[in-house]
Structures are given as structure tokens and as C-alpha cells.
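Justification of computing resources. Each target in the renewal requires a structure prediction run like the one illustrated here; the chain below, 238 residues long, is used simply to show the kind of job we budget for.
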Amino acid sequence: MLACVKSDIGLVRQLNEDSYIFVPPNLFAVADGMGGHAAGEIASNLATKVVKEYVSQHVGSADTVQVLEQAISMANKVVYQTAKNISECAGMGTTVTVVYIDGNMAYWGHVGDSRLYLLRDASIIQLTNDHSLVWELMQSGTITREEAASHPQRNILTRAVGSSEQVKIETGSIQTLPGDILLLCTDGLTNMVSEDEICNVIYSMPDIGEAVDKLISLANEAGGYDNITAVIIKYGVS
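Resulting C-alpha cells:
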């Protein structure tokens, strides 16, 4: 297995409010913070720190999906209490999408609109749901996926870590195959670069480091309106 990560501030934002966990070969995550001043950066950093520590201490002691769910729940409590106790952090929150790899199994926990994708047989499949207003409109058939991609309210979240005392956490797992690729990314990538473009880049560039660089470059060429973070994990490579 090979893995690579890159985070970029983009062309518009003054701070990079994205954070990530990169602990090959097992633990990976992305988080996209939100809030005034530097609060988004604080939220994503807090969440990834708590998740990393919790998973490292508890993995193997319980079902892996349960550990990921508990890790995000703990992160939610820490971010929520920090936002409640520090006036400068009021209202802050963050997305969190975390993956734990155990052999040929990949387990995930997820809140928000960062995404986990599976690339298999030259196709791309979104494994997580976006916890956003636009996603709900799309799921109900009110708008199409194409309309969702450019909808003016696409950044309105329905769930975020730290925005309330408790948060509903999406979890899942998949058995991976040799040659599979996982992509974890924040919406600074997916709002700027289409899924077809993402798929084409990753499959046309065998070097995943070059592929990550190209994805960041494409997001910036399209405007770079947000911070951009991407993790590529490639199976079947020794």
C-alpha cells in the first residue's frame, strides 16, 4: 500500500482551516473547519488531534467502527465545549472523515461534507453521504446531482462536529481489492474539480504524489476559493 497527502491554502482564504491525520498504513482523516477568525482552524485541529489519540488508544479493544464512532463523538464534545467556553471560538465546527485500514478492510466514520471515495476499475464511487442541505435536496429528487454541484447553498451543512452537544455519526466499511484506491478530500477539491476529472487524473498518473499535486493544481486553476486537502491511498503496491 502507498499513501500520500497534501493540503493547500488555495488562492482566496487567508488561513488554511483544513487539518488531516496521516498515519500510514492504518489511520487517515481530513477535517474542514468553519468559524470566524481562526476558529475553523482551531476546530479542525482539535478534532483531528482527539480522533488520532482516541483511535490510537482504543483500536483493537472494541469493534473498529464503534471505536471510530466514539472517537468522533469525543471530538464533538471537545470542540463543542471549547466553542462554548471561549468567546472567540463561538459557533465553530468542523467536518471529520476518518478511515482506519485493517488488512483488506477499510472502516470509516464521517460527519459533514468532506468525502471518502473508492476508485475501482477506472470508476469513482462516493462512499460517504454529504451532510448538507443540497445533498438532502438531491436525495429527495428536488434537484439533480449536476444542479447540486453549482447550487448557491451547497456549503450549508446539516451536521458538523462541535456545532451541537451531540452529533449523528455516519459509519461504514468496505472490503478492498488489489488495485483499489481510496481518496479522502475536503470540499475545496470537490467543489472545484468534477468527479470525472478526479478519476481521470488518478488513473492517468501512476505516481500518487504527482496525482495529489495535480488535483490541488486543478482546484486552484478553477478558482481555489477554499482550502484543499486530499489523501490518496493505493492498494496492491509493495
